[in-house]
Amino acid sequence: MRYYSQRSCLQSRTKKFLEGSTKAQTLLTFLVLLGTCMVIGDGALTPATCVLSALQGIKTRSTKISQGEVVLLSVVLLVALFAFQSAGTSKVALSFSPIMVTWFVTNAAIGIYNIITYHPSILKGLSPHYIYKFFALRGKIAWDILGAVFLSITGAEAMFADLGHFNKRAIQLAFSLFVYPAVILTYAGEAAYLVQYPEQISDAYYASIPEKIYWPMFVVSTLSAVVSSQSMISATFSIVKQSMALGCFPRVNMIHTSSKHEGQVYSPEINYILMVLCIGLVVGFKGGVQLSNAYGVVVIWVMIITTCLMTLVMLVIWDTNFLLVCAFFFPYILIEGAFMTSLLNKIPQGGWVPFAISAVFLAVMFSWTYGRSKKSIYEAERKMSLTELDQMLSTTNLCRPTGLCFFCTDLINGIPPIIRHYIQNTNSLREIMVIITVRTLPIKTVLPEERLVVGKLGPEGVYRCLVQFGYKDSPRLMDGDDFVALVVGKLCEITETTGEKWRLRLAEGSGAVFVVGRTILKSNKENGWFARFVIDYLYRFLQKNCRAAVSTLVVPPESTLQIGMVYEI
Questions:
Q1: Distance of CA 112 to CAs 100, 102, 109, 126, 356, Å?
Q2: 100 near 224, Cβ under 8 Å?
Q3: Which residue segments constitute the domains of the chain, with CATH numbers given?
Q4: Residue 61 clears pLDDT 80, i.e. is over it
Q5: CA angle 360, 366, 367 (to 5 degrees)
Q6: What is this structure's pTM?
Q7: Which residues contact 393 (CB under 8 A, 6 or more apart)?
Q8: What is the pLDDT of residues 374-394, one digit of tens each?
Q9: pLDDT-based confidence at 410, cuts 50/70/90?
Q10: Is 277 exposed, middle or buried (0-12, 13-18, 19+ CB in 10 A)?
Q11: d(CA 467, CA 409)
């Protein structure tokens, strides 16, 4: 009992501190958004680095092939890779496993061959004490080399992002029992080869491949580069989707490409952005060391931020024992911190790229998150009560023509203030008003009988309807007159009096209008210049160019009325 109480006390204090400190919440939000932006930057750097590195080996077989031609070939392959994204990961997933198994098995076999042929005692390097000896002999040089050593573990940061495509146990077993031993043998084989031929260090991988199997390995290497690139591209789609669900990223088109796995998604907008970034990086750096430096920097920052956030989850959410939290945090943060400090001198040499990419996405995500939070606070403070709505509808000079008015909003609880704005300025409201909210659930499809959840609000003729879609449901299932008929049918089911049912049917026959509210945020003069810039320029630009909240519902254009309202924040 004492053990449990100590843990709960620590958890409560940490949680209370985070909930009570605005600065701590701001810092945590910034850290989460920065980590997300770094993953998106990783999604651009990984394909550029992997594809260019794989095709680089073709230069070793012919002096006539220039670096410019390698860059051009890389651009063509990257365009093809991104063009294929719309087909979905599941369409090519069957080829992923054979390619990667072939890649690791052949590399491990070549590694064993090189170890036996060139320097069998290289396996002594598995002993950790050689780390100390290396630093003792080389000093600062060893510290500088540590940044290059870090590139050998890149790719591990993508494992957590691939949980949408593979389960946790599969990743753990595959990495521990298959990937890790194969990678160790591969690097040990390259090191053994370099002991005999140190002048080949600039192209150690391809140089260490036996001549007879060079071209088959070149093909396998290129295919594996495509697969690894696909992994981070898919991970970027997934993390953007998760950010959208949390209201931290502007709404973009998100298409589910698999009927079995919710995490397999595709976004045309994000896909084109990543493609432009990848091509720009390849053409801009032309395969120089700057691209590798940028890749190393983005990966280490993703790892450090993941470690910090994971520690917070263990402490606050899982209520893990404090000693176990320390046993996780300090070893990882020390190792990652050592790599990070070594990579600091790489920032002027290309390491600035992930920070530049992250700065752009961070501005987008911060502006959207800040604007959405201010909008939510405004609506929560000014949303209508049922009493106020009843009083407005009871006004004698209010015109109530026969018909249906579907008011689309993303507010689930309460009545949005834009309805007050609409009634006050039009002095009119149809006899039947239904407040519509659309939600996509984390399931494949919603049963027809569960598609609509309806309820009657206090005032006469006012209802609420929640429209539910699964991620593979087509919005056109609720198009036009069929949608109106279905909603009226559901409302009649919950209606007790015959007169009210008759009014609903009469309103259906008189036609329906869909009112879509569009809110415009405006910063008041009391805010500082930074808040005014974020609200009046950045957020408003994003709001104008992103998808609408009710875009899932196919609304007939001829029956649509858009009402704007300015929220002075």
A1: 18, 15, 5, 15, 41
A2: yes
A3: 2-369 (1.20.1740.10), 383-568 (no CATH)
A4: no
A5: 90
A6: 0.81
A7: 400, 429, 459, 460, 461, 462
A8: 888 888 888 888 888 888 888
A9: confident
A10: buried
A11: 11
